[in-house]
From TrEMBL:
It holds the Pfam family Amidase. This is Amidase. One of its GO terms (molecular function) is catalytic activity. It comes from the Bacteria. It comes from Neoasaia chiangmaiensis.
Length: 444
């Protein structure tokens, strides 16, 4: 069943929330060996939440808009009674969380049921979900390919039909990249709009959080639950849609270029906007991420360096050694680039751009082609997402209609205008411009 079918059947009391949760968890235990999307199944907590929904319905009370919908939780969000590992054995011996992260709590209040924690790149540092402790997450569309990261377990779990909704985080593209490669919907909300309390930080000045979902409607419903806001219904007629060019028009594969041309044609996006100094913006995001991440982990690295994933450890140590004046320059560039992003909307309501340069790389060849060279996918799949990180604008990733493996596009709006993103996403989905969910797109 899809998420709307789940809520409909539960509200009509033709099926119980407990049964839906049991079926979802049984499916994970039976099928996740193929994907490695899940790190823990939350049996006890799921049963508690599902039983509460059934009791409310029996008493004639409304259990919430997401009644009985199973959801996955990226393993950097606190779940009461569980150890938040952020994908690392370094934290495995920590105390269990005494309360839920705010976003987990809000989904539960809306009636959703947490059924699993999901795999991720260690401490969210990567675009691959290739975890030295938990293993690599495989793409449900092709198990020989990456799912993307760092929220790859959440995206893959949605794509595999384990749960219709999942939580992720996005610092440099960690929602947008895996959503694109796994063919699901994802949202990086306006920075600061959704609370990060109860989520393990990576880069405090850039971190954002947001949902994955199987459709634009359920992405919107989940965002409304997370933000505790009801978005207005708006008309997309006469909107000015512009396409990002320059940096965002190079290094695409032929398949991605064709998909973007089709999307732009449907939207009549003939205007091309070129943001200045995008390469420097991406470099600034790299510097800020490395410096803040390195500073956060340096005390623990001094004692437990051997327990880190070596690839993550080395990047964090390098970041901790960055001179202060380099970091200061990166932050100055960030402020300047944000102003340039605002200027890009003077003659446009929405900007569109590719989310990734290519389909998911193979596990046995985890590289992508950039400027004529093969470079590591783990660090470079965010070539189109990372520069936009600096501005903090809201970005919705949608699965484009293709003849092969999934490819995603970014819809970008002004800060606080998630309503515009959802309105355009619904129009594109309704007109057949987005990919349909996989045949196994169900949670029970």
């Amino acid at each position: 069943m899809t998420a709307p079918e789940i809520t409909g059947e539960i509200r009509a009391r033709r099926v119980s929330a407990v049964d839906i949760a049991r079926q979802a968890m049984a499916r994970i235990e039976t099928e996740d060996g193929r994907y490695n999307a899940v790190t823990r199944v939350l049996h006890q907590r799921a049963m508690e939440c599902a039983a509460r929904i059934d009791r409310l319905l029996a008493a004639g009370q409304d259990p919430g808009p997401l009644a009985g919908v199973p959801f996955g939780v990226k393993d950097l969000f606190d779940v009461r009674g569980e150890v938040t590992t952020a994908g690392s054995r370094v934290l495995a011996g920590s105390s269990s969380a005494t309360k839920d992260a705010i976003l987990v709590s809000r989904l539960i209040e809306a009636g959703a049921v947490p059924v699993a924690t999901t795999n991720m790149d260690e401490f969210a540092y990567g675009f691959a979900t290739d975890n030295a402790h938990h293993g690599v997450t495989r793409n449900p569309h092709d198990q020989d390919r990456l799912a993307g990261g760092s929220s790859g377990g959440s995206a893959a779990g949605v794509a595999a039909g384990f749960f219709p909704v999942a939580l992720g985080s996005d610092t440099n593209g960690s929602i947008r990249v895996p959503a694109s490669l796994c063919g699901v919907w994802g949202l990086r909300a306006t920075q600061g709009r959704l609370p990060t309390e109860g989520s393990y930080p990576f880069v405090a000045s850039l971190d954002t959080v947001g949902p994955f979902a199987t459709s634009s409607a359920y992405l919107r419903a989940t965002f409304e639950a997370l933000s505790r806001a009801t978005l207005p219904a708006i008309n997309t007629r006469d909107w000015r849609i512009a396409r990002l060019g320059g940096w965002f028009a190079t290094n695409m594969t032929t398949d991605m270029a064709q998909a973007m041309d089709s999307l732009a044609g449907h939207l009549d996006a003939t205007q091309v906007v070129e943001l200045p100094e995008v390469a420097r913006a991406r470099a600034a995001a790299f510097v800020i991420s490395a410096a803040e991440g390195g500073s956060l982990h340096l005390p623990r690295l001094r004692e437990f360096a051997d327990e880190y994933d070596p690839a993550v450890r080395d990047r964090l140590l390098a970041g901790a050694l960055l001179p202060a004046h380099i970091v200061f320059k990166a932050q100055r560039l960030r402020n300047w680039f944000r102003r340039q992003m605002h200027k890009a909307f003077v003659n446009a309501d929405i900007l569109i751009a590719p989310a990734v340069p290519c389909v998911a790389p193979r596990l046995d060849e985890p590289t992508i082609r950039i400027d004529g060279r093969d470079v590591p996918a783990r660090a470079n799949l965010g070539i189109y997402t990372q520069p936009l990180t600096l501005a903090g604008f809201p970005i919705l990733t949608l699965p484009m209609r293709t003849s092969g493996l999934p490819l995603g596009a970014q819809l970008i709006a002004r800060p606080g205008r998630e309503d515009q993103l959802f309105a355009l996403a619904a129009e594109l989905e309704g007109s057949g411009m987005t990919a349909s969910p996989k045949k196994h797109d169900h949670a029970a």
